[in-house]
Amino acid sequence: MGTAAEMLGVTPTFLRALGAAHLIEPKRSSGGHRRYSRYQLRLAARARELVDQGTPVEAACRIIILEDQLAEALRINAEYERERTAGD
């Protein structure tokens, strides 16, 4: 956790807050250390951007979750459109 926090320029407490808000849930090593994926680190970096702009942590996490859901919906819609137009 310390390495991830250092990479992002945040505190371990900030990363724990993101976990409590269910934005990121790191895996645990056999020694009990938290292991963050690159995707989770990107989410944490985005959360830091929003918090640095004055957004409360809980709200920042909700915004990021909604952004992620929107991106996935747009991806699915684009895939559907490609399949639909390929059949024409």
UniProtKB/TrEMBL annotation:
It comes from the Bacteria. Gene3D superfamilies: 1.10.1660.10. This is MerR family transcriptional regulator. Signal peptide: none annotated. One of its GO terms (molecular function) is DNA binding. SMART domains: HTH_MERR. Residues 1-66 form the HTH merR-type domain. One of its GO terms (biological process) is regulation of DNA-templated transcription.
